[in-house]
Amino acid sequence: xxxxxxxQFDSHEALLKxxxxxxxxxxxxxxxxxxxxxxxxxxxNPNEVMKVSGGDDQGYLNFLKTMDTLAISNPYLPVIxxxxxxxxxxxxxxxxxxxxxxERIVTYMEKLSQPPKLIRRDYDKHGHLVRTSWxxxxxWASWVSNYVHxxxxxxxxxxxxxxxxxxLLKIALEFHTAEVEKFKGYxxxxxxxGNVMCRGKQFVVTDPFA
Length: 210
Prior knowledge:
The protein has 210 residues and is of the alpha+beta class. It is 33% helix and 29% strand. The chain is built from five helices and ten strands.
């Protein structure tokens, strides 16, 4: 299991300089980008990636804290080798109301792949046959999220295959919600197709909290 390390800085410039030690190291190349993070490939380890998130992604930070504190090991979670929170001091946070945008989270983790997609036959409003790409994980993520919140309509499909994930999410969500009450709006499950990747055929939930 990994440990989440927190480093504090007394200036934004010093913080970014420390982050650049990671992002500007030899063999690091841009791989992908999302709403809150940039992912880099690592030439020295092709099976690993580096994810650099903004400090305003409190959901992801609290997900890392939850995994670290509970020492959770589960096939539905990514294998994380190292996670570093580059944090401003409390004094600077008080001086700057937008401090979250100036902080960073660097995570070294296993390289995962995008979930597969199926071609679904459908009809448009004119009755013409069309084929659309539909990721099965989209339905799966919705079922799991709903079930954790008490919707048991798909209990048969989920319990047979994904009970381990359901137990994990219920424990983690309870802990996570209690921990982040002081961060209004950051204590909820946010599981959808956009934050699920694959390790072979195994679904991996990369960022389930918001």
